[in-house]
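Researcher: Structure prediction, please.
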Amino acid sequence: MSTYSLTHLSDQILLDGLSALLADDRQTAAALLAYIAEVDARKLYLPAACPSMHAYCVRVLHLAEDAAYKRITVARTARRFPVIFAALADGRLHLSAVGLLVPHLTEDSADELIAAASHRSKAEIALLLAQRYPRPDLPTTLHPLPAPALSVELAPGRVAAAPPPTTTVVPLAPQRFALQLTIDQATQDKLVRAQALLRHQLPSGDLVQVVDRALDALLDDLERKKFAATPRPRAGTARSKARNARHIPNDVKRAVHARDGEQCSFVSEDGERCTSRSFLEFDHVDPVALGGQATVDGTRLLCRAHNQFAAECTFGTDFMQARRAQAAMEADVILGLCGLGWSTADARRAVAQSAHLPATTLEKRLVAALAVLCPRSATRCSDGATVAAWAQLAVGPAPTSRKHCVAALSLPLRLPVDFLVEDSS
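Model: Predicted structure follows.
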């Protein structure tokens, strides 16, 4: 007798069995989400040659793209609010319900909101959220939409959250895809102009061929900028090799690009190679800090996730987190200095020359960099920190007004404007 043939069961046994299986399914689903959340938090998808948890769920666990997206979203939320695991396990909430609640869950509201949403349908939860978090009426508008005009062969994009994206790629037949998208007037004007300029070569003005040629030109430009691709490559010069150790010469970029095939080169212990072709970065096989050289054999292509993973394996997670925080702070300092009128080169120089100073906050790092740019006048503010003369900000190298300087400095760094105005007078 087939395991799935249940015609021999009585009505009551059938209903009891269904209830028991549903309870087991809910328990299993909650446990599955807990495992997904923990694997995601530990980034165990990286050693499996997957650049993201979504890729791991699709490639290794063989979940559908949308099912993987939904479960990862709910798992991450439940990790923040563990009460969700219990609510899913006993059937008070379902995955779609948690998806609706995600934008509104906070430390203060989570328990009460989950209780209010318990045993409600998706429509009922949507109405509950509309009552608690009302949104303004949508304006009455009418926009003409052009009919779909393009049909080209493109690789499918990443799965997006609801609502669906305005661009869709649907396979029609072997080697044939339908592309549907909505474009604005500026893009329409570019298409019409490209058709007109290509009439001598494409009398029909076929949009498929127009877009195909446009993509060829775009790819040529992107490959030239990112991989130093050129029809007439030149050998690396002694000057290029004498630059800083982190610099990767163009001839090395071309060779590595040709060898790695424009794909992340990370390989798992099982021999699986990462399939990511997005966010690719050149990486030194042996870190520069440990004597690595920018040679063809010493350089590889990695996606950003596996580049960071390789660094953490070498230097440790804590060290890399500290370095990332430092890099983010330096980027903010450079942004603030550029907002005050200094060039990017001057801002980077000031940050580099002040890196040795004991500045642990964003404001102090900015002050230290300003002291490099304005060394002739320094004062002391009330908290004892060394401050480059604020008067220099108003009349110094920044080609902006005093008011603009103060505003540019106070907005990104959240410094007290009154203090800046007082010290720059």
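Model: Residues 146-164, 377-425 have pLDDT under 50 and may be disordered.
Researcher: Thanks, that helps.
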